[in-house]
Amino acid sequence: MGWYLSGYRLEERKDLPQHTVFLTPVPPCSTSPQQLTRLFSLPLTPSSPTVPVENVRLVDRVSCKKAALGTLYLTATHVIFVENSPDTRKETWILHSQISTIEKQATTATGCPLLIRCKNFQIVQLVIPQERDCHDVYISLMRLARPVKYEELYCFSFNPKLDKEEREQGWLLIDLSEEYERMGLPDNYWQLSDVNRDYRVCDSYPTDLYVPKSATAHIIVGSSKFRSRRRFPALSYYCKESHASICRSSQPLSGFSARCLEDEQMLQAIRKANPGSDFIYVVDTRPKLNAMANRAAGKGYENEDNYSNIKFQFIGIENIHVMRNSLQKMLEGKGYENEDNYSNIKFQFIGIENIHVMRNSLQKMLEVCELKSPSMSDFLWGLENSGWLRHIKAIMDAGIFIAKAVSEEGASVLVHCSDGWDRTAQVCSVASLLLDPYYRTVKGFMVLIEKDWIAFGHKFNHRYGNLDGDPKEISPVIDQFIECVWQLTELFPCAFEFNERFLIHIQHHVYSCQFGNFLCNSQKERRELKIQERTYSLWSHLWKNRADYLNPLFRADHSQMQGSLHLPTAPCNFTYKFWSGMYNRFEKGLHPRQSVTDYLMAVKEESQQLEEELEALQGRLEKIQEVHFNGTKVKGKQSEPSKPSGFSTSDNSTANTPQDYSGNMKSFPSRSPSQGDEDSALILTQDNLKSSDPDLSVNSDQESGVEDLSCRSPSGGEHAPSEDSGKDRDSDEAVFLTA
Q1: Is the pLDDT reported for residue 581 higher than 50?
Q2: Residue 692 among known ligand-binding residues
Q3: Contact by Cβ (8 Å): 417, 428
Q4: Residue 286 counted as domain residue
């Protein structure tokens, strides 16, 4: 039995551990430090120190700057460090759900260090004066960072102050039925099946699935019984021009000799749904050695002899366990399709490693990133030794192969790994991104993740540690996909509507649990929890702030946006870069003062302002010319009209035009009145960037999680119009009157 603080009242909660106190978070900038202190001055446990913890030091791990002295607060959702400096009070906010590991280090002369590593690659080192305080904070954070129930996650208490209707509209922004309709479905070859209504065939699949028209319910159910986790072949992407498709499934339970007539018929139905090709590819993303080991275990891959007109392709993306449990798999009976049973099928093994290899590879790379002042050779050796970029290349190679098969050969492809929810999701989404320019837009990318990751049952809870569970199930699967997309944006800078910040924010919210999109392991679990009725959608938040995520180089009419992106099947390793913007984004000393993207966005914004001003001036000029034209006609009818001093009829052609104001350029400023100094629109710091992430709160630094508490202009830094703006308007009117 524990306690929960709701507003300013303690409430008894029987569902919480004994002697636990939870405190509600307080929005920054709306609450003074004194109010924070009064609100949080409650013991976490009977023997713990009071919160806040005073005289805590925040160590700058990159520079040699003196550690910042401040106060540490714990809330129900955040760890908050507030600097004591009266000049520049800053806050560092860390979501409990973002905490990956907490390490209590050996006590030193200055205190007890506490090292917090986050899932968004932020590292925070605190030095707490008293060892007992450090221990209590450590124990509290260990519990807060590992909730045991979904209801303890941030999204169930997060309230962006939207009403019920706005929340519902946010969830309706992405509609997969509209996406399949955009693909041209249903048509003469594909139909929407209700075979998985109420999840009665496969509980990790969505209810709405497209299958070949010739595939009866009997064939689908029979195929599902022959596939791991009952994940039968279903449509992921469809090219309506060529009728080529990308389908996905899990591995067959074939072993060395087992076969399933319904599964063979299912693959033939996929082949016949594409009249432009007489075969299909079966792409197995696993290394062939792993697939063969699974076949020895009675699982494996399709037998080519049983599947006619099918080409098999093994890509080689490692799975999450690799060969660790090969003996156990020998007893389970899995593997890959037997070539003897599948005619007209080409098999392809790709070779992408499993989730355990990927997790270890990321850990090795992050260790390299944590090195203090490494030499270039040490860094490059560590990066190469981690194998991270090799894994990224393997995923990209798989996507490139599938995209070429669809776009150049006009062939359909079936993709699977072991269970069909990790490497299969990576490869299908990369291939779709290469094939379809719609997925390279802001909204299209949201649709792609919703379709291939969320709807098709990627295990978000297990892979990203939303709840306390088996750490061996955690792996950076969607992180790798997001990096693949970033690598493509580097290769094709004009092809993507969104920028790097968009990708980083999506990765951040996969782990933040602030929105309900990335919870649970399947659509069925999300519906049982009533996620849409109880939480908010990330997509509506990103869409509302999409101006922050636009790529200034994007052009809808550019050749890179016309059809497929073409890459060599095996591009050289040098084309793949280390993504410092993701993995070192909190290390401010490693980045330039202003990124190229921010600079280009500032230039684009200034250009738009100048174009708007030019359009307004042209409108004024037309009105001036119209007034003088009418005035000239009236004067022409009068005999001996009086002329104002200093005015000549010979000047009519230039009066009240830009040439007429050569001596008074204030009437036509060279930049928008909202701009200040000449370079203000071009030289931006991180503090000037708009913070559109509600988790980072008002005015908080989006990249570092640090907020400046000093007073700022309520206008967001914009300058008031110049004093001359009103005078210029009056002077123009005076000229009109004299005319």
Answers
A1: yes
A2: no
A3: no
A4: yes
Catalytic residue among 118, 260, 417, 428: 417
Residue 32 is labelled as binding a ligand: no
Same domain, 63 and 194: no
Predicted pLDDT of residue 532: 96
Residue 672 domain-assigned (yes or no): no
The CATH number assigned to the domain holding 122 equals 2.30.29.30
Look at residue 629 and tell me if it is in a domain: no
420 and 377: one domain?
A: yes
pLDDT digits (tens, 9 = 90+) for 241-271: 999 999 999 999 875 557 899 999 999 999 9
Q: Into how many domains does the chain fold? A: 2
- Burial class for 684, CB neighbours closer than 10 Å (0-12, 13-18, 19+): middle
Q: Which domain, by its residues, includes 62?
A: 2-146
Contact 152, 461 (CB under 8 A): no
320 is in an annotated binding site: no
3-state secondary structure 147-214: CCCHHHCHHHCCCCCCCHHHHHHHHCCCCHHHHHHHCCCCCCCEEEECCCHHHCCCCCCCCCEEEECC
User: How much is the pLDDT for 52?
Assistant: 87
Inside any domain, residue 397:
yes
482 annotated ligand-binding residue:
no
Shared domain for 221 and 83, answered yes or no, is no
b/e per residue, 285-322, with b = 16+ CB within 10 A? Answer: bbbbebbbbbbbbbbbbbbbebbbbbbbbbbbbbbbbb
Q: Is 513 a catalytic residue?
A: no
pTM of the model: 0.75
Q: Are residues 140 and 181 in the same domain?
A: no
Does 139 count as an annotated binding residue?
no
